Amino acid sequence: MRRRRMRFGPAIWTQRTLPNWLSLFRLLSSPGLAILLLVNADGLRFITATWFALASITDYLDGYLARRWKVVSTLGVFIDLAADKILVSTVLIVLVGTGAVPSWMAAVIVAREFVISGLRSQAATTGTVISASQLGKWKTTVTLVALFATLLYPLHTPPVPVQAGLWLATTITIASAVDYMARFWHVGAKS
Fold first, then answer.
1. 74-98 and 18-39 helices cross at what angle (nearest 10)?
2. Are 55 and 86 a contacting pair, CB within 8 Å?
3. Where are the alpha helices (DSSP H) in the chain?
4. Which residues are within 8 A (CB) of 189 and not within 5 positions of it... i.e. 6 or more apart?
5. Using only C-alpha atoms, what is the Rg of the chain?
6. 36, 63, 163, 175: least CB-packed within 10 angstroms?
7. Residue 187: is its pLDDT beyond 80?
8. Residue 154 to residue 174: CA distance in whole angstroms
9. pLDDT tens-digit profile of 66-109?
10. CA-CA distances (angstroms) from residue 34 to 14, 37, 91, 93, 181?
11. pLDDT at 3 over 60
12. What is the model's pTM?
């Protein structure tokens, strides 16, 4: 019997797999970012913020490439969604510990992720897909920008404009949660 050889070279970076690798990079960035934040050194702030920005950009890039190349997969969607939630939750939780983000804001943002994931999963059991809304996309963008800005400052109370960004992210998070719940209620009424 002839043995098949595994290829680890450039073949793994194909159109079919690159979006998943980008999502995986975002997922694996979370522990590294947490370590850098916990070290809490002033000299690491720019490196941490840059790393977070690169990981955040992959959130857009992986989905764009998967759709453009028509290689959207169940695994890719799962990794993408998990990576988004884990990246944001990890950074928020560590920033709460440093005093840069109020715990109630982090709780609202993280709780929204769990609630919406649960609603989408429940809808999926009936064969219904609740796709991302424009408000949900704005929530993601504003949250990522607010966290990036927070990471640029010493890990204690950030300046007022950064705090305003966190307030805006929290407000849009609440509005997005209400929007998803209304859409779920509407879908539930039809089924």
1. 10
2. no
3. 18-39, 45-68, 74-98, 103-125, 134-151, 160-190
4. none
5. 18
6. 175
7. no
8. 27
9. 889 988 888 888 888 899 999 999 999 999 998 899 999 999 99
10. 30, 5, 6, 9, 31
11. no
12. 0.86
Task: Using alpha carbons, select from 103, 179, 100, 79 the residue that is nearest to residue 135.
Answer: 179
Nearest CA among 144, 80, 83, 134 for reference residue 109? 144
pLDDT digits (tens, 9 = 90+) for 114-154: 999 888 888 778 877 777 889 999 999 999 999 999 999 87
Q: Is 139 helix (H, G, I), strand (E, B) or coil?
A: helix
Q: Where are the domains of the chain?
A: 14-190
DSSP string covering 4-50: PPP--SGGGSSTTTHHHHHHHHHHHHHHHHHHHHHHT-GGGHHHHHH
25/87 Cα distance (integer angstroms): 10
